[in-house]
Prior knowledge:
Radius of gyration: 18 Å
Helix content: 25-40%
Low-confidence stretches: none
CATH architecture: Alpha-Beta Complex
Number of helices: 5
Oligomer: single chain
Amino acid sequence: MNTLSYKTISANKATVNKQWVLVDAEGQTLGRLASKVAILLRGKHKPNFTPHVDCGDNVIVINAEKINLTGNKWTEKTYVRHTGYPGGQRTLSATEMFGKDPARIVEKSVKGMLPKNKLGSALFRNLNVVVGAEHKHEAQKPKAINLNEVN
């Protein structure tokens, strides 16, 4: 037999079907929530997953203020940034970051689990984290999913 009887199907921008997904963060552990949201954003749960294409879903995370951190992470976990000036390294504990903006903790943990390239930046734009149960994407009719069922 000279011909190939099967072909690998590779998704592209035109053939991808993106959906809107609603995730409730209430009572979820931060890292476990972030890894499952990253899987949804990347599209790894879909059969036509292609590593170099944005084939994931648009994810809305509600109730970001109700996440859990285990152990002593509320006091011992630090978020480091740099101002760009000499001696400009600044740190915040998880409690301080949570006090300023609870959504930012979820965003930073999900962003750390995405690729560190242009594709990762594009995938991160598909994430919407909201404090509280109300969000501005009702018109997209997001499908609520249970994170415990996502691989």
